[in-house]
Amino acid sequence: MNFLNAKTILHLYMDIRIFAIANILSNHKMNQTDFFKCLSDTTRLDILKLVMVKQNVCVCELTEQLQLSQPKISRHLALLRNLSILLDQRQGQWVYYRLNPNLPEWASKVLDIISKQNDDMLENPHVNASISIHCE
């Protein structure tokens, strides 16, 4: 008898989750008011800027870069995830966040403008050097 191992179960779980997210997104129009309310917080903007630079970012990387507690970062990530601005993917004990590639065009343009702003945090050469220290 063939038993499913943990890795197979994890892959099935991720496939089902991706399907569910895609289904929700196809039936959901992002509310512009909620989107801009979400972007009105400096911490969430900083999180988005780091995610846009690194593309896949773990919570521990964000806590180190932003010098904020893990619960605080997680609360902000939950808001970004619930609005479908960010998607999450679990890899072992780590959860990585990335920008949702299926954002409405207007939302993608806004985030693109934000990412092109000159920002001391992103111009800091230590941002890319020190990120990923704890998650590997």
UniProtKB/TrEMBL annotation:
Domain HTH arsR-type: 24-125
Lineage: Bacteria, Pseudomonadati, Pseudomonadota, Gammaproteobacteria, Moraxellales
Assigned keywords, A-Z: Arsenical resistance, DNA-binding, Transcription, Transcription regulation
Name of the molecule in the record: Operon regulator ArsR
Gene coding for it: arsR
Record's keyword annotation contains Magnesium: no
Molecular function as annotated in GO: DNA binding; DNA-binding transcription factor activity
Domain of life of the organism encoding this protein: Bacteria
GO biological process: response to arsenic-containing substance
InterPro entries from the UniProt entry: ArsR-like_HTH, HTH_ArsR_DNA-bd_dom, HTH_MetalResp_TranReg, WH-like_DNA-bd_sf, WH_DNA-bd_sf
Position of the signal peptide: none
